[in-house]
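Input sequence (171 aa), recorded before submission:
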Amino acid sequence: MRLQLAQGIALLSTGALAGAFGYGAANLVPTFNAVPLEMRLSFHTELMRMNGITVQGAMGLSVLSAIALAMRTRTSARWLAGGAGLLVVASFLITRFGNVPINGRIKEWAATSPPPDHAAILDRWEAFNHARTGAAFAAFALLIILSVRRDRTGRRSPAAPLGDPGGERRG
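Predicted structure, token format:
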């Protein structure tokens, strides 16, 4: 039961993270680029303030649940769950050291004015955004693979807990 809970939480939180980043990359960034710069800066600043708590929460829950899943499984399931956790950590690091410092600059620009090289800086923010989105989607994909794997007989093969050599889950 604990294994199923860890797997469910990992899927839900990592899916939410990938979905949030995916929505941003597919919809928000093109909208940012279509509106006047002053509007983008104001909206971007407010959006990042609101996103801070929810995105960090999804990242934290994604990492913790993937690690819990990796610790409770064996063989390839452990590698898939561990890989998903590492990809979420990568997404966090890209966000923390790539996007967040630029968000701080954007906040300053919204209150004053952007520097002459603002377009290049915004392009760098978008590159970081694509990288963290890719990492989050890859983490989610690994957890999906873990959830839908099949054994040699064609039956769904759930993550097998440690100490269960047959790979069968109990109660």
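Checked by second reader. The mean pLDDT is 88.
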